[in-house]
Amino acid sequence: MDLLSLNQEELGDALEEIGEPRYRAGQLASWVYERRVSSFDAMSNLPKALREKLAGQFSLRPLTTARESGSKDTTRKFLFQLADSQLIETVLIPASPALYGERADRRTICISSQVGCAYGCKFCASGIDGWKRNLTAGEIVAQFLSIEEISGEKINNIVFMGMGEPFANYENLLKAISIINAPWGIGLGSRHITVSTSGLVPRIRDFADQPLQLRLAISLHGATDEVRGQIMPVNRKYPLAELIDACAYYTSKKKQHLTFEYILIKDVNDTEEQARALARHARDLQAKVNLIPYNTVEDLDWERPEQPVQENFLKILKSRGVSATLRREKGHDIAAACGQLRLQAERKKSVAPVAGVE
Ligand code: SAH
Ligand code: SF4
After folding, report:
1. How far apart are CA 226 and CA 351, in angstroms?
2. Which of 131, 132, 253, 353 has the CB geometry, 3.0–4.6 Å to 115, for a possible disulfide?
3. Which residues contact 6 (CB under 8 A, 6 or more apart)?
4. pTM over 0.85
5. Model confidence pLDDT, tens digit, residues 44-68
6. How far apart (Å, rounded) are the C-alpha atoms in residues 337 and 295?
7. 338 an active-site residue?
8. Measured at the alpha carbon of residue 30, what is the angle toward residues 78 and 148, in degrees to the nearest 5?
9. Rounded-to-integer distance, Cα 84 and Cα 291, Å
10. Residue ranges in the chain modelled with pLDDT below 50
């Protein structure tokens, strides 16, 4: 059983089932989340026989590192292998600019929520090979623990902008977040956790109704149905008017502004008309806009617009009173990094098995 998928109540139940007292749940949480041990053997205040028994029942790390790229001061990508050999990606962004949290010196990780993605946005590496499965809550929590363990860095910000659509794995997502947020768990404040969605309207409303003050980012990428519909198939199911309505509901319910993510793709969504339409949506909702120059994806032939076009797009937003940023540095292309390492590995795997496992 995957221990990282369990809250204290459930861990207590699981312990009782194997004839152990419930209070051991608190002891285990302290070892796992406070002292961060990754094996039962290290739990020195537990009798040896009990440690062995627990090791036979529970696993503490549902993933192993398959590959790593990047260096200490830049964005580092980690490819993890799950128990069923599927691959996911997690990205560590050191001291990144204040894109999602409020402070500039935060170390952010970009977490995956599914293996692959069913939504098939035309610009995205994660959806190219379709959807494989949802991650368990434990596989989500483990990304955080493993990255801190490997990097030796303390992470103070999480964005769900890795592979997959978090709102299509809503239950496990919220379970993982509750463990990450819990005082007995990782203890990360809810305001340091951002979930990004391609626009699953009913889930945006559910998210507004749940009690935690989490942050929300919307992958907009098109400011009219015509343009958005061309690049994001989800727009057919939930057109812009419905999406914007759900965003307004979220903003009013949470008394919190959300962020629009907008990838700039040459000759697709980078016109002045789109900039003006985007400015209207953002102003109505007082949403912040993050412009992201498109990152090249193997197998796709889109391009990013020239720099002056990007700057002009930004200027139009700003001149209309919208709070907007343009990511200029390559190393800070947070989410763009996600999905791409896995895609490369999957491609190689079809030639030689277990590519890059070190
Ligand atoms: N499924 C969710 C969460 C994944 S985030 C969502 O779509 O919001 C995926 C994000 O990765 C997108 O919003 C986009 O910001 C980024 N992204 C994907 N492909 C990209 C690319 N080729 N270039 C730049 N950013 C990209
Ligand atoms: Fe899936 Fe998000 Fe990529 Fe779209 S952008 S394919 S929803 S991961």
Report:
1. 39
2. 132
3. 14, 138
4. yes
5. 999 999 999 999 999 999 999 988 8
6. 8
7. yes
8. 20
9. 36
10. 98, 101, 331-336, 350-358
d(CA 110, CA 331): 13
Q: Is the CB of 196 under 6 A from ligand 1?
A: yes
16 is catalytic: no
* Order of strands across the sheet that contains 215-219: 63-69, 76-82, 87-96, 106-110, 157-160, 193-197, 215-219, 259-264, 288-293, 324-326
Query: For residue 72, what pLDDT is reported?
Result: 64
DSSP string over 24-57: HHHHHHIIIIIS--SSGGG-TTS-HHHHHHHHHH
Q: Where are the beta strands (DSSP E) in 121-269?
A: 131-134, 157-160, 193-197, 215-219, 259-264
Q: In angstroms, what CA-CA distances link 123 with 172, 297, 300? A: 26, 8, 7
Query: Looking at the DSSP assignment, which residues form a beta bridge with residue 58?
Result: none
Q: Which ligand is nearest to the CA of 337?
A: 1
Amino acid, single-letter form, for residue 41:
D
pLDDT digits (tens, 9 = 90+) for 137-184: 999 999 999 999 998 889 999 999 999 999 999 999 999 999 999 999
Tell me the backbone φ, ψ of residue 326, rounded to 5 degrees.
-120, 125
Secondary structure letter of residue 59 according to DSSP: B
- Dihedral sign from CA coordinates of 179, 184, 186, 187: positive
* CA dist 58 → 62, 138, 195, 233, 254 (Å): 10, 12, 29, 40, 38
C-beta of 340 in contact with ligand 2 (< 6 A): no
Confidence (pLDDT) at 299:
79
